[in-house]
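Weekly modeling sync, notes
Attendees: S.R. (lead), two postdocs, one rotation student

Agenda item 3: backlog of single-chain predictions. S.R. asked that every request posted to the team notebook include the full sequence so nobody has to chase files. The rotation student volunteered to paste the first one in as an example of the format we agreed on. Action items at the bottom.

Example entry:
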Amino acid sequence: MEGRCAVEILTDFGFCLASSILKVSSSPGTDVFLTTGSDEVFVFGEQDRHIKAILIFPDNVRDLVVNKDKKTLYVACCTGVYCIRFSSLPSRAQSSESSRIPPRVKASHEHLVIREEGTLALLLLHSLLLNLRRENTSWLLTRYKIPEDSTTVARYETLGSFKAPLISDSDHRGSDERSEKKPVLFCVRPADASSKSPGAHASLDPVLFKVLFGIDAALAKSPVVLCGLPDGRLCFFAHRVPGSRLRVLYSLEQPVVFIGVQTNASHSLVALGESGKVVLVTLEPKATPGDGVAARFSEVRVPGPALCACLDKRSLYYSTGSDLLVLDLALVSSTGGSEAEKETLASPKTTADASRNVNSLNVCRVVALAEHLKNVEGQLQLQLLALSSRGQLQIIRPPVGVPDGGSSSHAGRAIKDVLSAIGDVCERASVLKSSVKSRNQTLTHLNQLLNISFLLKANANGKMEKPIRCRAVADWSTLLREDSLTLKYILDNGSPYILERGWTLNVTVSSMCDSAQVESSSAHYSFPFHNLHPGEKLEISLPLDTQGQWSLPCVVTATLAFALSSILGEKASAELSGGHLVNLPLNTLTVDCLHALRMVNPADVKRNAAPRSYDVTPLDTVRTFLKPHSGLRDDASSQKHSTCVKVSSQLLKETLKASEGTSTNVGVLLLDWLIGGEHGGVKSKSDTKTLDRSVVHARAPNGHLVKMTAKEVVLVNPTEEDSVVTPEAPLDIVEVRVESSSLAAVCGMHHAVLQRLQALLQKAPERSSTLNMQSLHVREALQHAKKILHKLQECRVSCNFGEGTSTGKMISHLLSAYEELRETSLLII
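Predicted structure, as returned to the notebook:
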């Protein structure tokens, strides 16, 4: 739109106005009615350009509407609705010609036709008057019947009412702010309706009318009342449809200022919000061809705030108080022709910016607008009747578009705007594409994390092996004449998922020794993953130093940890209540003295009988220190210590299966299983080929030689009356004996053997109760243990009361009690 608009001042009322609730309405003749929100209504004659009369009402005026057919004026006040007939207004001739003061007419109770307090908006519909007011919890729209006799003023009959509940957005405002926001009433009918009546403000395309308001309203050609509420809701009801109720058509999420219909070829419904949101309701084909059409609600944003508005065939005129602006709706519709803009406009969550389609008319301080059509040379020309905040009543003639030179410049600007919009959409699409790709990757990683977590948590009860599990092989290595025990730790990924970046294997090695002479210690290791695919293995080496830093047995625990910061970022992961790490425990391994044995040939036993100097442990150092202070004999170091474990041969034959090429001797099978088998998830790398006999010579972790023997014997006990073992029914057993000059080595080996046999018993089948064997001397063993306990208590009491018991004698008592307890006659069956 090119050129400048023409502004003509009709009159100056001489008062300043700052309120946005002003109302301007024109009569069928040349009279203009306006109100300032006070108790006065001004009647202005356009031809004479003077104020004909001032109507005085008991309360402030909220709204007014003109009945053109019956030549009456309806005024809504706080106390009710008044009806003023044009014939009752005084003419200028009735007053003295010299008087410049307009006559003042007071409305009395005789003019009161509706006694309802709080009326905010009025609308004429056929012979009905609609009254909208606000109650405590709802909006109430009431219909009143206008009497046929217009000569007398009588109370109007109520025909019914509709309610719409209040929402929280309107409740939390203050009372003053709520009173300033006025609702808007508007009537629309199908375009093919032949009859027209007062209050029929606009007609809408029949197809769009049917899509929006239903087939019943379209068939009945019923006028539809639209109600724009201060909370942003756009409600409607069909007048002639039985059972019609007030329903919500749309929500602008801001107070509704104006509702109108664009009467060009598109026939769109237009609504304007206070903050500058414009909603255009048009028709568009459905996605599937042949499915018909649907309504499209397009939102655009224009500079605000909007105080008042007016609409013609092409443009929307509205005032912000500081300027009068015009929005070219045709440009907005054409801009939405591309697929990207259509998607942007059609999305209820996205409001397109239409500021480039808004032009200024360079008219300021307009607080009220009304459409004013004037017949110019047989054609109706649009003019705007405006009231400024300074009290000036103006006629504004908008500029007319130039078809030649102006159109080319306008087209060039439009093309430039479209290209700029395309570039903006492409940039936003690229950013959104990158964001969607990043979020998809994040969701993929989180999904894989959940799958792995559920997979490991499902097997947490230990009944089934975890698909991601660990195992180890213990082996000795020599570097610079120093022997060290290393653990080859292997993680098998048996799951169908990849352990990608962000996953870390945390391994902790801790000693199970609680001895006061050897301090318990632990070490922690972390190994990050770099894409460990299904079926692959991760092999790492962990040092198990035996030079005083570790004491076997030790426990190796492992957890899979995932850092959420690798996919969510440091800031997002720090806000998580459960922390930024996800820890999933794996299986636990146990390394004992049998895993750390080093096989020795029988020919080298005598040559390597003495322990190496670099294999001396702190326990041996303490023993050497105590030797001159304890009164022990000098040959105590050469004293042999031994322990014995008895196992039923039948139990071993049922649980240990001999493989091809191996010995069928039960003792050899037992030693092979004890030393060469996998126990606690750990396997020894000792050379089991030397186990071709029932005697094994090896070096313990502390460097001392250890001798293990396993031989089959027959247990016969004919002297015990209650025993089931008789000379006719002897019991075959395997006796496992461990001998060494190091007491620590014997203790460690004894513990390891018992742990393995305990695991073997859990896999053994249930035995019948025929081999009861008086629980094999359990009663006798318990009595023997009580005697040993009594001796230790006596020794402890003597030491506490200082009766001269030496330290050496105390140590001798302890060693003797330990050996007696170890040499038990109990049998594992």
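Discussion: group reviewed the output briefly. The first strand starts at residue 6 and ends at 12.
Action items: rotation student to repeat for the remaining queue; S.R. to check formatting next week.
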